[in-house]
Amino acid sequence: MFAGMLSFVRQLLEGVWVAIGQIWSNKTRSALTTIGLVIGVASVCAVIAGLTGLKTKVLSEFESVANARSIYLMGNRPQEGRLKNAPWEEIVLKPDELDGLLDHCPSVENFTMIRQNSWSVRSGERSVDSIPVTGISRAWHEIEGRSVIMGRPFSLVDSEHARRVCLITPDLRDELRLNRDCIGESLLMGDARYLIVGVVEEKVQPSMFGMMDNSSAKGEAFVPFATMYKASGGGWMHAIVTSKSPEVSADAQAEIRFYMRRARDLKPGDPNTFRMEVVEKFISGFKKVAAVMTAIAGGIVAISLLVGGVGIMNIMLVSVSERTREIGLRKAVGAKASAIMFQFLIEAVILCMLGGLIGIGAGQLLTAGMASMPNGLDEAHIPFWAILLSLAFSGLVGVVFGMFPAVKAARLDPIEALRHE
Predict the structure, then answer these.
(1) If 0-12 CB within 10 Å is exposed, 13-18 middle and 19+ buried, where does residue 76 land?
(2) Which of 49, 100, 212, 353 has its CA at a distance of 20 to 30 angstroms from the CA of residue 326?
């Protein structure tokens, strides 16, 4: 068995050496033959690198504005059951329903209640319409990752006594032409006057595809949740709950579901009158879609490799025709048909592998170009699995399209081959 393996390795090395010699003696023709394969592999690598960079960019920007531990909780009218026609007053989330949430849900770290409205904001002669004003709990800053950069956040007294105090963003301060240190000044929001106690940092909007989009160009204002809830006469609210870690997010959801069903006195069999949306679910869903897009795009572009394979087969048939007398001579001195076939097959595979390697290099250059473009895909790179896949596919193309010329060479009759002119 060892002798057989040794013979195979020796035959393989001899075949590789002969194949390299043939390719080297026909350098120009070999280079032109592999162009199709080079273009195909470079295209596959560039497309996969571009999609990988795009996926990384989208996910990083999405994760920069959304906490992966966040669970959005809101009222929801069920589609069936005894509550499917329940009035919205019974469905909507209520502040007192969340009073014991932290005590009964050990996997929950914190939560903030949210009540949003759109008001006109006025200071002196300056007025800005349709400013988003959000009622928030004190935990909002930690959950949303937006801190107070001047002044102070809402105190416990502000929240419990529904005081008319507010936080504003620098954009709104500039829009109203307030002093840079505007703490202590007052604003007319809606029909009431609010005291500015702090300035909160702007929300970082995703710069998708390099285009900065600041949808809050006119700014935002925030008031204590109790203040907003009282001023709006209740109404629609939701909550953002954070789990202690992404790993216990499922446990936190189960605990919240159990807590809310008990708080709403839902009977067994009753559908939930609330729903939860999880950021992590959207992220994992996008990753699956991106993987499918990469596979489809890579597959479509890989079809171009078949064109390169046809070129390889064509040139190998020419090589068989040119070397017919050589094949006849080798057979006449005892060379086996399998050895002849093996040699031509190795030559086709080496040609394809060379084309694949050059194509990967060209793909790297294209990827570097994409990454260096202004507002380009900074994270674009060719994954290691794509490099291995490109090389494997190149070798497979060599085997598939080199097989026919190799078999044709192996089946040549030695006498007829020696007579060939």
Answers:
(1) middle
(2) 353
Q: Consecutive sets of 10 residues in the chain, 421 residues long: mean pLDDT of each? A: 70 75 78 83 85 79 69 88 80 89 91 92 88 93 90 92 93 90 90 92 62 59 93 89 85 92 87 85 75 77 76 83 81 79 85 88 88 75 86 86 86 75 61
CA separation for the pair 254, 120 (Å, rounded): 40
How far, CA to CA in Å, does 317 sit from each of 144, 311, 322, 404, 405?
A: 66, 10, 9, 8, 5
Q: Which residues does 45 contact at the CB level (< 8 Å), separation at least 6?
A: 359, 360, 362, 363, 364, 366, 367, 382, 386, 387, 390
Q: In whole angstroms, how far apart are CA 334 and each of 67, 258, 323, 340?
A: 73, 82, 17, 11
The torsion region of residue 265 among left (phi > 0), alpha (psi -120 to 50) and beta comes to left
Q: How many CA atoms lie within 13 A of 232 on its CB side?
A: 20
